[in-house]
Design goal:
CATH class of the largest domain: Mainly Alpha
Order of helices and strands: HHHHHHHHHHHH
CATH topology of the largest domain: Rhopdopsin 7-helix transmembrane proteins
Largest sheet: none
Shape: elongated
Structural class: mainly alpha
Number of helices: 12
Helix content: over 70%
Length: 389
């Protein structure tokens, strides 16, 4: 009966904050996985095996915190109902007994919590699977790195399956539960949750230490060293989150605290950090092959546009020159001057000023037309086709 008090202890932070935080983290994870999938398709035309593992891991994470949220709401409503029926107001009070008609629903929710822990354990392994495969591919120059990565992958999977089976064996899923089954199931599920957290912590530490001897000996530019430092700082953050998660699981096992939302939040955050680290090569590929190329194309297009804009007045003036020559009337031809033609069409080179004098006012229309034709021939001469009147 002492385990019943756990129903009212899950109040370290509000459920709305819990679901909002986990949803935001899952959205970030979804964006990161989308970028990784784009990079994989651009590179080889399909997705890697670890791309699918990341998608499955994110689905497990979402299922974990959604099930936890719904379960906590049911626990809270049930606890308040029981305490109201028993006339107890203290949330930490231990009820003397539980009505028989409420016992089965409580055990059913406890069974759902065991299923939630199982999904959480699987999400921890699937989100770290791509990171282990990534290390095996990147550092295959050293044969011992792939061996350790694959060995750790298989060992962590077997341990996760064993923990899940051991916890589930204590929770009889057939028929109606009794108090003996409940008292055995709850401690085992909490212990299995703690064991899974310890396994995840060991995996994080190994993944952090494994590439260090190789990276330290690399002769790379300073900027790339900064990038490696950021990646390893993120790895340290993942280790810290794993330690915090193990602490809360240990508190729940000892009965000192049982806020499931805190431990599940650590599971989600740990999984998102693993996804972040597993997608690092995809960020670099997108930056080098998509963003930089897009910037180069944009700069080239801007240069072409600027070149066309500088040539546009000459082209417009030339078109105006030709259309005007064939459509002007006699009066317009007399009133126009040679200087107007030269400004519009003639390149700025030295020319005979004697040929650009305006016609006399007493000049006839026929003389003016012949003068205009001569000016046009002079203009053609600057284009290299004729340089004589």
């Amino acid at each position: 009966m002492e385990a019943f008090i756990a129903l009212g202890n899950d109040a370290y932070f509000d459920s709305t904050v819990f679901i909002a935080t986990c949803s935001a983290l899952s959205a970030i994870g979804g964006v990161l996985i989308a970028l990784r999938c784009v990079a994989s398709v651009k590179q080889i035309g399909r997705l890697y095996l670890d791309d699918y593992a990341m998608i499955v891991g994110l689905a497990f994470l979402i299922a974990t915190f959604v099930m936890t949220h719904l379960l906590e709401r049911s626990y809270d409503q049930m606890y308040k109902k029981v305490m109201s029926l028993l006339g107890l107001e203290s949330k930490r009070a231990l009820p003397p007994s539980v009505p028989d008609y409420l016992f089965d629903p409580i055990l059913e929710m406890d069974r759902i919590w065991v299923a939630t822990i199982t999904v959480a354990n699987l999400s921890t392994w699937t989100t770290k699977l791509p990171l282990m495969l990534l290390l095996a591919r990147l550092f295959s120059v050293k044969p011992w790195v792939p061996w350790i990565s694959y060995g750790m992958l298989v060992a962590s999977l077997l341990v996760t399956i064993a923990i899940t089976a051991w916890s589930g064996a204590a929770c009889d899923m057939r028929g109606q539960w009794d108090t003996d089954v409940a008292e055995t199931c709850s401690p085992r599920s909490a212990l299995g949750h703690l064991a899974s957290g310890i396994v995840g912590l060991i995996v994080d530490v190994v993944l952090f230490i494994l590439p260090l001897p190789i990276i330290i000996r690399l002769n790379v530019p300073f900027k790339r060293k900064i990038g490696y430092a950021i990646v390893f700082a993120t790895g340290i953050l993942g280790i810290v989150v794993s330690i915090v998660g193990c602490y809360w699981r240990r508190q729940a096992l000892s009965g000192k605290a049982s806020d499931r939302k805190v431990s599940i939040l650590c599971v989600v955050l740990e999984g998102i950090i693993a996804i972040l680290l597993g997608c690092v090569p995809a960020y670099y590929y997108i930056y080098r092959n998509i963003i930089i190329k897009a910037n180069k194309f944009s700069n080239a297009a801007s240069g072409i546009t600027a070149t066309k804009s500088t040539r546009k007045p000459t082209s417009t003036a030339r078109h105006s020159h030709m259309s005007r020559r064939y459509t002007t009337t006699a009066d317009e031809t007399i009133n126009s001057t040679q200087g107007d033609w030269i400004k519009m069409d003639t390149p700025p080179v030295s020319r005979d000023r004697s040929r650009t004098r305006e016609p006399e006012p007493s000049m006839s229309i026929e003389t003016a037309r012949s003068s205009t034709d001569r000016d046009h021939i002079i203009h053609i001469g600057y284009d290299g086709r004729s340089n004589r009147a």
